Amino acid sequence: MAADHFADRLVARIEATRSLLVVGLDPELRQLPPELLDGVEDLAGAAAAAARFCRAVIDGVAGVAPAVKPQSAFFEAFGAAGLHALEEVTAHARAAGLLVVEDSKRGDIGSTMAAYATAALGRLQIGERELPVHDSDAVTLSPYLGPESLQPMLDAADAYGKGLFVLVRTSNPGSARVQGLETPDGRVFEQVAKLIDELGAERRGACGYSNVGAVAGLTYPDDARVLRALMPHTFLLVPGLGAQGGAPDDFPLFVNDDGARRRRRRLARGRRRLENARGRGRCRSDGRRADPRRRARRRERADRRAARAARARRPLALVARAAALARTRRCGAPVAATAPARASAARSSRRAGGGPSRS
Ligand SMILES: O=c1ccn([C@@H]2O[C@H](COP(=O)(O)O)[C@@H](O)[C@H]2O)c(=O)[nH]1
């Protein structure tokens, strides 16, 4: 197992940002801000506009969200230039300290899967040299070719400190038609959940969570409890917020108890500090009386910083929205959610009243 375990890296990012938000990067051409498309006439131009949009989103959420999830289909739609854009966006996000979950839902026989693994997570051996390709931190997988089809991805994840998110209970309306079929040992998705728990048993990091995660749609909150029980050491990637109808208030159902406890402890600590400060008529945690002039100067500086940031981000107001979501909905639980950086989803999550995590 690589020293830098994926789950430990993810926990570190969650702790650093105090957020569970995974920001979806789905640069659908017709949803990009029109000013980015001025003069765009070919696939290369469209891919460059998509990359520019994603880089702006990344700059907006860096430091306030732990991870981004580029949807590879939206990049592949631009052809070869799109793949180049995906690599560029991935590198930009990683350089900004974000983990990158490549959403390509791979699933095939072993040798083909090995090539997919090299592309997403691994390195290509050319002579003496080993070259990273997409160099994402994690990738989404379909389990329907059976356990051995996942092996090359498991090998790459173990070797390079990367992670996997296997489709278990997807968010789409028809997912139960196959995933919900009854078997003598429970529903199909429950069998997949058990497989993930088994595969993860030998693959846990110091944090106690494995590098084999699962995808569980926010649109099926009734199944959250059974999934958490079947996969207690597994990160859940929870798509479907907003546009697909997933409700932010259901998100805590997908969060493990240890994450919720950590969150409660943090809240209690904050509340105690506030009460102590109020009780003493002071507002500094070190007990010294705050200087009102310094406080006013600090506030002015913060206002100026916020105004500068707002000016820089004006064309992409939804980015600010994603960042605000990540900032205000803080939580340290070991589960992840996705929120797409797309205008439609930003609108629906606004209607729904905020971000996905409130445990
Ligand atoms: O079960 C799944 C697995 C993956 N997805 C992906 O997440 C985003 C969701 O986008 P929305 O705009 O929030 O609907 C998209 O890239 C899907 O391919 C999913 O929706 N459900």
TrEMBL record:
In this chain, composition skew of type Low complexity spans 328-347
Q: What positions does UniProt annotate as the active site of this protein?
A: K105 (proton donor)
- Domain (Orotidine 5'-phosphate decarboxylase): give its ranges: 20-266
- Key word Disulfide bond present: no
GO terms for molecular function, please? orotidine-5'-phosphate decarboxylase activity
One of its Pfam families is OMPdecase
Catalysed reaction equations from the record: orotidine 5'-phosphate + H(+) = UMP + CO2
Q: Which UniProt keywords apply?
A: Decarboxylase, Lyase, Pyrimidine biosynthesis
Against Gene3D superfamilies, the record matches this protein to: Aldolase class I
Q: What is its EC number?
A: 4.1.1.23
Its pathway is: Pyrimidine metabolism; UMP biosynthesis via de novo pathway; UMP from orotate: step 2/2
Query: Spans of biased composition, class Basic and acidic residues?
Result: 273-290
Q: Mind listing the GO biological process terms from this record?
A: 'de novo' pyrimidine nucleobase biosynthetic process; 'de novo' UMP biosynthetic process
The cross-references to SMART domains, in alphabetical order and at most eight, read: OMPdecase
List the residue ranges of the region (Disordered).
271-313, 328-359
Q: Which SUPFAM superfamilies match?
A: Ribulose-phoshate binding barrel
Q: Does the keyword Cytoplasm apply?
A: no
Look at the named UniProt entry and state the broad enzyme category this protein falls under: lyase
Of which family is this protein a member?
Belongs to the OMP decarboxylase family. Type 2 subfamily.
Know the name of this protein? Orotidine 5'-phosphate decarboxylase
- Encoding gene (name): pyrF
